[in-house]
Design goal:
By secondary structure, the protein is α/β, with parallel strands linked by helices. The chain contains five helices and nine strands; from the N terminus they run E-E-E-H-H-E-H-E-H-E-E-E-E-H.
Length: 150
């Protein structure tokens, strides 16, 4: 599925978080949501990205943003990642890739001449009306919060 762009409605989703609670786009109606897709828990780039958001979490909240991370890792993996790095936000488990596919983030990648399917690291800033306000396709993992904050 093609990636939604600025001005498009964000695709509706439902998927479990690290505690198995079903989370949805609908619960963030009336709020600004940072929905960030990342490849894998507890890897260098993904950890840097999560820690950037963690370290600036209060500033993001004060600016009116809610944060949700999403990867295809299991809820148990997410729980370990959250505990290890003291992440103050929830992580969504999309093991069947339905949310990835709706947002166009499950893509063909290649490394060392080998092709495989994987998560494209992309962040969507979704407005209170459910419309995508920003798509950050070139994520600076160490300074990701600065890419979001005005």
């Amino acid at each position: 599925m093609p990636r939604p762009q600025v001005g498009d409605p964000a695709p509706a989703f439902e998927a479990p978080d690290q505690n198995g609670k079903i989370r949805s786009l609908h619960e963030f109606k009336g709020q600004r949501l940072v929905l960030y897709f990342y490849p894998k828990d507890d890897t260098p780039g993904c950890t840097a990205e999560a820690c950037s958001l963690r370290d600036h979490y209060q500033s993001l909240l004060q600016a009116g943003y809610q944060i949700l991370g999403i990867s295809s890792d299991s809820p148990a993996s997410h729980q370990k990642f959250i505990t290890k790095f003291q992440l103050p936000f929830d992580l969504i488990s999309d093991q069947d890739k339905t949310v990835h596919e709706a947002f166009g983030t499950w893509i063909q990648k290649s490394m060392y001449g080998r092709s495989y399917m994987g998560t494209d690291r992309v962040t969507f800033v979704i407005g209170p009306d459910g419309i995508i306000q920003e798509v950050i396709a070139k994520v600076d993992t160490k300074n990701h919060a600065a890419q979001i904050l005005p």
